[in-house]
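For reference, the entry.
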Amino acid sequence: MMGVGKSSIGKDLSYKLNMEFKDMDSIIEKKLSLSISEVFKKKGEKFFRDIEEKETINHLNEKKVVIALGGGAFMNEKIREETSKKGISFWLDLESKAIFQRIKVNMKRPLLNNITSESEIEKICKSRETIYSLSDFRIDCNSKNRSQIIEEIYNIYESK
């Protein structure tokens, strides 16, 4: 889900694991020379999802890398299958109230540009919950700080 901290946690985790960090939204933005919002406006969501699938699957083939998927990427069955084959997936689960507080001022998230209430975030969270639950691990981020979340993921990774 967008706004849960995938990029910031992924970046810090990659440092701790001595691995490269890849943020798929940033990679797509660089490749297209457009922000994600501009891609949605100019080319549409289907175009974005097609590029997202291709780029994500390409980067999943790399070794020793931490990848932050876009908030909707795991909804794509091909991305989920490749993630399952090539790595370990973590669902960073955060209450909709906390997500709303984080994203309400960020216009970089095209699916959230018209969101005006916590209940709208809750609907998106609920609609994705079943798919997100297919992740290898669920990390409850509600009562943890960034360091605790990173440590939990690190410990799981190191035990594999």
